[in-house]
Amino acid sequence: MTLILLTAAACADKSGGPRQLAGADAERGRQTAERLACAACHEIPGVAWPQGRVGGSLTGFAGRPLIAGRFRNQPDVLVRWLSDAPSLDPSTGMPPLPITAAEARDVAAYLYTLK
Amino acid sequence: MSGLGEIFGGWPPPVLDPAGPFAGPVTALAWVLLISGGLVLAMVLGVTSVALFGPRRWRAKLGHERLVWIGGLAFPVVVLTALLLHGLSLTRDLSAPPQPGETRIRVTGEMWWWRVAYLDTAGREAVQDANEIHIPVGRPVTLELEAADVIHSLWIPRLAGKVDMIPGRRNLMRINADRPGTYAAQCAEFCGGPHALMGLVVVAHAPAEWDAWRTRTAAPPTPTPGRGAELFLSAGCGACHTVRGTPANGLAGPDLTHVGSRRTLGAGILPNHQGTLAAWIADSQAIKPGNRMPAYPVLSGPDIRALAAWLGSLK
Prior knowledge:
Chain A is mainly α. Chain A is 36% helix and 3% strand.
């Protein structure tokens, strides 16, 4: 019985880690993503045009364990990735984006709404 | 379109909100036509209903030959002649030849972008640009409209009516903006594949600012040497694109001498920043399917970023 409980505990959902971004607003983030035209590289659910193919699709991003297949999908990492991806991965094609830290947090909150 | 609301103060841009003396009369005429057309339609429907279902006494009156002479002949002849005369005189004003000393800009429709050349007083192409037209506020500017391949049509709803661009012809369009700002334009004649993604930006500056812009644009930028500059030449970009001050002198695609200072990319369809530059370079076909620039699967991520950074530095 103890073993079963321990196993269950070990397998408990850890995706949660905190995905909350204090003060961030997903709707504002959606508007920022539209203003930047993130869809020029990334297919985004609900965006009819453009549907870029250079970067990965953002469909289901909220449930994805890794960012760009390499980094923990946690808010602090994601915010940094959005503002300055090459600082995490020098081989990426995603350039640093012209957004403020607050805007990056909003966009991160938006990305965590993409099922 | 995506992300252009901020550039144009809302998307889609308004079409019945004139912002200059060459658009005002066109919008007024559009309203006159719409409202009087509506009134005539209401009258015809009214008379038809009376003729079908009205009291016998009213129907008898409609049977009179005079109604046909007045309503069927005199009224249309008078109204349509008046409209035709008004339309002809309006069109003459809207496409009058430029006055001496007036700014002339040659705009050539290409599949699926706009070549823009600022003419000097002798009518020579002095400054090359693309996909953006810069004008001084409050001064009439003449656009010489040409087409390189198929028929296009330039429509800047807030500044003027549509004028077609026809291969082998030069049509004139006059524009004048009352206020500084950014005005959206669009190709309004189906010209194949990505016709719907053939936009253009008109930027109206205060006169002093416009003079400064022109001086700045006439001079080549000082391209920063580095990986981006090397890649631009080694990847063959210069076969289609010109960047003045470098060996890149291609004429098939838009002049990129000052691409970093443009508001949009892809001919008025994307905001211009590092991210969209990278997207366009890597795979413009996903964004604007059928356009003449191929995707570049031979470039690595850092290559694409270096190119985007270099192009963005061409202010």
